[in-house]
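Sequence only, no structure available. Ideas?
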Amino acid sequence: MIKGDTILGQSIKSDTIKRYVSAAAELFTDRWGNMADPYECKTLRRNYPKILISALARYEKVPNRREIITHDMFEHIAKQADRAGPDSLVASFKDWLSWSRYGGPRQGEWCQEKSKTKYKEVEGIAGEAQAFRLDDLAFYDHNSRRIDPRDTLVCNVAYATVRWRYQKNKDNGEIIKYYADSRGNRWCPVYALLSIAQRAIRMNIPSNEPIAKYNQGTKQYFITAKNVATILQEAAYETMGITDPKVLQKWTSHSLRVTAANELHRMGFSDAYIKHRLRWRSDAFMKYLRHTIHVARKHTEALSLTNKNLQLEKSNLDRVNERIDGIQLHRCRDENDILWRQYFYAKDSTVV
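Reply:
I predicted one. Tokens follow.
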């Protein structure tokens, strides 16, 4: 039953299986008198039904973990955006994707869940958009003077601010700064935000509407979670050759937030910084972290041993110093191996 070997071939939840087993145990005790319940009995050395059902219950609590967006996926989407129109779906999403590496937005904070023609409102406030509007973005020069995004170049912008209109943590209206990357515009958060603002102006999006929109023919639509999942899964397929639908489903709109957390973590930022910058109230971000190739490489580099790591140090004992000097005179290619062997296995216990 746990493996899905049921009449309809469908998996059954642990609570349902537990009830089946308990009913069978009750029938067993009714038939055979005062024998102990084989499921609830605490004197059994190995209560296998309970072990299996408990394991299934723990498995059911494991979240459906979303995957990070790899560098190759970013580049693939960027190339598609370069070939598409400036107000197309992929071009619009590319800008949001670029900024998401810094902002780590939740789905409801920037795009729509299902409807591409209606936007979600803040609960209890009619007409108030839950996702970002144009007036939530602001741009400033190097003297902290505000710039009109209509007629400026990114080179004139030092930083931008985003007002988080709606947040899961209820800290609505929080304003966060994002600094321009002087090394280039391709993945610069300020360049992405300026492009988003200028697209909203170009498309004449109403001031009360969310700005995560795109043109398709002569009509405008909101970006939806399904749009995001489709683009990311196609990128995963093209860059990594993944064909298993169950694996591809791990890339969704939530991958943007997962990626932002992992980017900061692999760069060595503290837990407090990640929580503050990506707007967490608790340590819940820890479940977002993944064993990425970057983390593996950093782990290896940190533990890489060199001759200096294994160099023997002299002490205040002449016997030890003489032995170390003698070893260093007869080094060979694997010098550290010899040093350690002679140092630890010397016959004279005073040396060790």
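The chain has 13 helices and six strands.
Hope that gets you unstuck.
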